[in-house]
Write a structure and sequence with these properties.
The structure holds three protein chains of three kinds. By secondary structure, chain B is an alpha+beta fold. Chain B has helices at residues 50-54, 80-84; strands spanning 36-40, 60-62, 68-70, 90-94. Chain B has two helices and four strands. A two-stranded antiparallel sheet of chain B has the order 1-4. In chain B, strands 2-3 form a two-stranded antiparallel sheet. The mean pLDDT of chain B is 91. Chain C has a single domain (2-181), classed as Pyruvate-ferredoxin Oxidoreductase, domain 3 (3-Layer(aba) Sandwich), CATH 3.40.920. Chains in contact: A-B, A-C. The A-C interface holds A 4-6, 8, 32, 117-118, 170-171, 174-178, 270-271, 273-274, 276-277, 357, 359-362 and C 18-19, 22-23, 25-27, 29, 31-36, 38-40, 58-63, 65.
Amino acid sequence: MSKRTGMEVAIAAAEAVALCNIDVAAVYPITPQSHIAEHLSDIVHNGRIDAEFITVESEHSAMSACAGASATGARVYTATSSQGLILMHEILPIVSAMRLPVVMGNANRALSGPLNIWNDHSDIMSVRDCGWIQLFAENGQEVIDLTIQSFKMAEHPDVMLPAVVNLDGFQLTHMIEPMEFPTQEEVNRFLPERAPFATLHPDKPVSMGCFNMPDIFTETMMAKNEALVNSKQTILKIWDEWEKQFGRRYKPVETYFSEDAETLILTMGSMSETASVAVDEMRKKGKRVGLLRLRLWRPFPLEELRSALKGCKTLIVMDRALSFGGAGGPVGTEIKSLLFHDKSRPRIVNFLMGLGGRDMKVEDFIAMVERAGKKKDETYEFYGVRQ
Amino acid sequence: MKQKKWPEAWHEVTPGCVVFAPGSASTYKTGSWRAQRPVWDNKKCIKCGICYIFCPECCISESADGFFAANLDYCKGCGICEHECWPQAIAMVEEEV
Amino acid sequence: MIEIRWHGRGGQGAVTSVELLALAAIEEGKYAQGFPAFGPERRGAPVMAYNRVDAQPIRVRSGIYQPDVVVVLDPSLMTLVNVTDGIKPGGLLIVNTAKPQKSIRDTLKYTGRLATVDATHIAREELGLPIANTTMLGAILKATGVLKFASLDVPIEERFGRIAAKNKKALKRAYDSVKISK
């Protein structure tokens, strides 16, 4: 393990990608991801890695270039945020359907209308269904670790699916904090060379990105779904390997004081760390509160969530996005529907918070727990909205 | 057990729907769509190759003696070769019923 | 945990200072955060940046509303922005100014702990530019004792290369000449 160092998390993300020895990066800059794009292009330009950095003209082209490069067997990376992510949307389900292990860093930022460059999860939530593995990082160390792990998860022969690592825009990307990088030798030991099951090569021609008729489409969709659902087993194995090699433990649902908690808060991303401080303060006052941090969003870890919820009476789901005109926050909605038939399911309260970069303070989490206790109905609520 | 020509069950679908047999489009004989077929009159043919160039199916080829003919497995009878032929050496003839 | 808020103008190096402070703390084996008030900025616009330093891992990621220390890099901001907003009782205000401390206290109606240093003047002499950010770091270290002076060495060397020596001189002068009062 190389020494503890301080740097901006976005720069660290680019450094982690460099350790993975990618072949191609096709990246278009967008606030707040731009430092990742800039630093990665510096790394390639300075010859630190033997890679091609394609300066594409849009995110749509970025993802298209990634798909094409990945189809030839290259190890590929891109990064984006918000409007850039949804500009790529057209290609996202194609990449997963083609089973190409593209890895993407997404600096979570609010979707426009009105234009807002600050942090929330509306961008990634709007592409929930695209068939990618989706992970959330809480701090700089996790950004490094998850980025390196994603290449192994994506390229694993039992998975062969693209993966996106979410890091909160500004809150993480522009934060300077201490981190430790694995050495190049350690990463080489962890991450083998990519061995694709098929590549585009003139010597051995195959067809990729084919057409599919109604009489086989349903089966194709089931095959893709099974691949994503079953990828969880491989993800867990890879997290075991990571712990053995690096000593840091990763779980699909991280728990904090949840064992005897009556009330649990569920968060994703960097706000989880602030929420854990709130849990400490509430525990000091004798409240039996705990925290669940959802690290693996797709495939959804239902078993791990169920076991974390044992004994829980109230689950407060903090969403940083919402489905307009729908049932509320995407995470709250999904958990409600997944637990609908469970006889021992907790009461689920859904708050929308931290939208468009609105700060989430320790006292906000404490206030939400109190509000959940007083709330009589089960509708979702915009926490802190000025009426 | 006979090898299945196409995947049927969900677990038989190739990952990514990759088709490993190259050039498999050639097994689909589009010639059966034809209502008319091109016939060359080699007395008029000047061997310019325009019909070969314009065929959208790329199914016209040159024979050893320099004259041209369509591969009837794929020719869809669109009539472009007849339309483009300068000396009007090609005639579109009704397919026999 | 100590929380520091910096006030500066875009282009004066507030974000660089915050970075250097965070890196120095990490050099010492401590935990630190350094971040700007995120947003679109332009040269000359008032900006804020933040540091947290602690011996324990820092888990809070929200903004800083009740700083222990407030640093004002540009004295002209004192009449534009409420620089003492939220400062903790017993907190410390550090101002880059050539004026006497009484003048600052009167302008801001501030009665808490105050440290002043004419960082602009030092920077002009040592660096040839009125960019006072690294100079102010010297004043902060002396007034707060948050880090060892030597911990800034490596971050400054790495950041400034050829002009690191000049920056260190400016830092030392501010460290030695900052006036602190209760």
